[in-house]
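Lab channel / #folding
Pinned by the channel admin:
"Please post every new chain as: sequence first, then the structure tokens as a reply. Keep commentary short and put observations after the output so the thread stays searchable."

First post following the new format, from NK:
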Amino acid sequence: MRHGMDGWIDDTIALVRPWGFDLSSVVAPVLLWHGTDDELSPVSHSYWLAKRIDRAEIQVNTGAVHSDAVQALPGVLKWVKKHWIDELD
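Reply from TO:
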């Protein structure tokens, strides 16, 4: 919040308005990471997204909360390397 509330406000608006594209039009590989104990965002939303994005892979971590995404980052970056960087070589 040091630089203002714009990002937070944009995220909040994105929850209640159309995103401007159809999720089925996403053709790139997508990783959805979610913790089962996240009280800010229900895991059902990640399952909903995964059903609508053809190349989505979902990783649901039992007992993880919203902020545990920070600890998941090294694994997420390995996934990005495998699915994006290695494909480009």
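NK: Strands lie at 30-35, 56-61.
TO: also worth noting, The helical segments are 6-14, 43-52, 69-88.
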